Amino acid sequence: MKKQPVQKREKKEYHGVAALIRDPQVIIAAILVLAALVAIFAPVGDREGITNLQFGLDLEGGSWIQLEFQADVVTVQTPVDINAVAKSMSNTLDCTVIPIDLGKVEIDKKFTEAELKSAVEKAGAVFIGSEPGVGEDTADSVKRILESKVNSLGTSDVKVNVLTNLNGVAQYVRVELAGVDMQEAQEIVGKQGLFEIRVQSVGDSTEHVLYGDSVVSVQTPMMDPATGVWGVGFTLDDAGALALQKACIETGATKNPASHPINMYLDSEMVYSAPLSYELAVSIAKHPVNQLSASTGVGDEGKKQAQELEVHLRAGALPVEVEIAGSGSTSAALGDYFKIICIIAGIAALAAVALTVYLRYRVAAIVLPMVLTNVAEIVILLGIAVFIQQLDLAAIAALIAVLGTGIDQLVIITDEVMHEGRVPSKVLYLKRLKRALLIIMTSAATVIIAMFPLIIMDLSTLKGFAIINILGILIGVLITRPAYGRIVMEILSKKN
Fold first, then answer.
1. Could you identify which of 42, 297, 313, 403 might form a hypothetical disulfide with 218, taking C-beta atoms 3.0 to 4.6 angstroms apart as the criterion?
2. Are residues 150 and 122 in the same domain?
3. Are residues 352 and 467 in the same domain?
4. Contact (CB, 8 A) for 458 and 162
5. Is the model's pTM score more than 0.90?
């Protein structure tokens, strides 16, 4: 008996909502929106606000300080090894000189151009020029140390941006601390943080013993319950302990402690001075002692000084001196006011966009998906910002810009797929959608290229503006625009 051919089951086509809930692009967009809402509003830790969004000092209140490096980068032309030039200049100028590349050296102090030229010529090289600032490695070290110091304040809303010129020389570093007052900010980041121990030798003369780089661990500030004096305990490495033992024995601090006190300095300002105790003097005379303590005073002032000393000891000193070149602050009340204004501005922008689109199409079935797609894009963007970006006024401006460009691109899609108000066939529709997305991708690529230098140059708040813009563009091109195209196809098909 001849078998009957098996008939292939026709694939069922879905339309309307049934088609949309099965579309991968729409599903991905919906999942990302839900995930973003969870990231924004899910209760995490001991947050103070109703969201997990991080705000910069423009919206949170806080301080900013711009520091200028007290150093020079010298360009030379030399027939000899640059390391030899650096060593010779270091001996001549009595400072630290390190090579940056084959034709540049970094000097950790400020000198006149005449002094620099003389030192270069003495090293057998030709002086080309100099400019204030430091090289990339030193700038990265400064940024790392400052981040460590400000993080010790217990705030996560911190920005440390090194401002670098086109020659790769960093002249300034800008620190933004949301929720931190100006005085506290200046005490922590407005100084080099160079810790030094000296011992009194003869008369008012003191002898250098060690710097803070010999400190290997630091204790939490504690108050002596018997005296009420605050202090910070710390541990020296073996080399530091040996240096202290040698200095105490040679100056006589172990035999006559009262005449040879131990002095501790922070940026050349004395923070502790006292003779060795009898027990400590006996111990140091016999063997190196690693455990030391610095007393800072009593009451709230003593506690504050102890905490500041702890921060500098833990993070270490900056490799070069810095000076405050500028500073400013925003009050918490003003920050809250800016938040309200930003919310109003965002709602007004969205309403204006919705009205404009409605006046163009006069069809609510098209306008509503456009607006909702735009809102979804902003929600996804905010969900990502929870993890990577503070929201300041520049970032808010970028969000509004993303909102405007987003609607513009949705209009391009809508105009491209509609033909004289008629719905084309599915094949023709997809062809037109592809063409519209290609236009959008080309436009998006130009904006990303234009924004990228702002990220590379690390220009403070402009970097956040660029990041939000680029993220918004990528979310739109890869997620929300294709999803919108699929939604519009179903709406127009149903309409006709």
1. 313
2. yes
3. yes
4. yes
5. no
What pLDDT, on the 0 to 100 scale, is given for residue 63? 79
CA–CA dist 160, 143 (Å, integer): 6
Q: Residues in the chain, how many? A: 496
Together in a domain, 202 and 231: yes
DSSP 8-state secondary structure symbol assigned to residue 224: -
Q: What is the pLDDT of residues 226-282, one digit of tens each?
A: 888 898 889 999 999 999 999 999 988 889 988 889 898 888 888 888 888 888 888
Residue 337's domain spans which residues?
A: 17-59+331-495
Q: Which residues of the chain have pLDDT under 50?
A: 1
Tokens of 267: 């940026």
- DSSP helix, strand, coil percent of the chain (3-state; round to 5): 55, 20, 25
Tell which phi-psi region holds residue 133, choosing left (phi > 0), alpha (psi between -120 and 50) or beta: left
Contact 93, 112 (CB under 8 A): no
Sequence-distant (6+) residues with CB within 8 A of 87 are: 97
Distance CA 492, CA 369 (A): 12
Under a CB-based contact definition with an 8 Å cutoff, are residues 402 and 394 in contact?
no
Residues 81 and 122 occupy one common structural domain: yes
> Same structural domain for residues 306 and 438?
no
